[in-house]
Amino acid sequence: MPFKNFFNQIVNIGVRESYLPWEVHLTRKLNSILLIAIFNLIFGIVVYTVLGYYTLIIDLFLAMTIGSFLLLFNKYFNYIWASYWFFIVGYVFFISINLKLGKDSYMLLFYFPVVLSLVQLLGRKELIKHLIILGILCIVSVSIIAVGFIKNWVPVIFTPESMNTIMLVNIILSVFTAVAFVIVVVIESVSQERLINKMLTEKEILLSEVFHRVKNNMNIVTSLLSLKKNNSDSAEVRDALEECRSRVFSMSLVHHKIFERENVVDLNFKDYINELMTELKISFGQKGEVDIIIDAEEFFVELSNAIPCGLILNEFVTNSFKYARQPDKKLKVNITLKKSENLIFLELRDNGPGLNNGADEKANTLGIELMKSLSEQINGEYSFKNDNGLVFQLKFRQG
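Predicted structure:
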């Protein structure tokens, strides 16, 4: 237990409260990889001391000492500085030790765990620039080693028998290092995933509670508007309050549907239309006096688009109830909703007199202007026309 606590203290050096989850785990991975590298270097010092290869011990000791400064860079700077320090020191050390051991030592195998750790640490869009820079430096260091082998910059002083032992040690250590790096990455990745899932769950619960409270508050508003409408003696006031109540309800219904499905991203818009039309027919007392024909495909609409679309529907149908009725025929409202890839098409039409012929042109125009504003809010393309009644068409993209 004391060793575990000590290990955790070392691994958490440089972790800050302001860090995002991936930054915390990147810092921890860096520290863990450094510990693995130090273990390898200590193991190499012991092995080469026992075998009497004292020439390499100074390189190993310097690499271990200088590389350990990574902890200070993590603590007093950040993981970017620490990453550069770790990999640049590693590249310099690899150049020196590879040239001294020669190509037959298999020392180049250590580049595989190094590249693996580099990609795992910096393989994010926020760090791609640093990944490219350190990747280029890795290629440069390998190129220097290759040229050094060809030019024989450092003559190999080991006998074939000694080289066989060194080769065996390097193969074992490189495989161990790669496996250890993979284990560290997997452990930290699993831990990060658990933390992210926990945060997402908490966020979903919080958002669900927000939607629930908003829905309840809007229901209270609609109830107050209904009470005020019922207590008013003015028909004009009652109509205005009912319009306000229906608009609030159309927004409240979105929150209700979101909360009902426990999905804070989108909602089934066909179900929403059916429920909204039922409510509007009851609210305006048109249950048996109007036909609402719905031709809607079943798909989900993003929340940012659902509320404006709901208000547009509410406005059109409300205006149809008020201004499109004619004494010689039954009012009909057609709602068409289609989707093609990420393009959504909404068409609303009635069989009334159309634009500019309503009983109250000013009020009708107010509803039209509101529909235009809501369409622009979702960057939609819209149009109004007369075709045996008023026709409104809207196209907008989702995603």
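Summary: The chain has twelve helices and seven strands.
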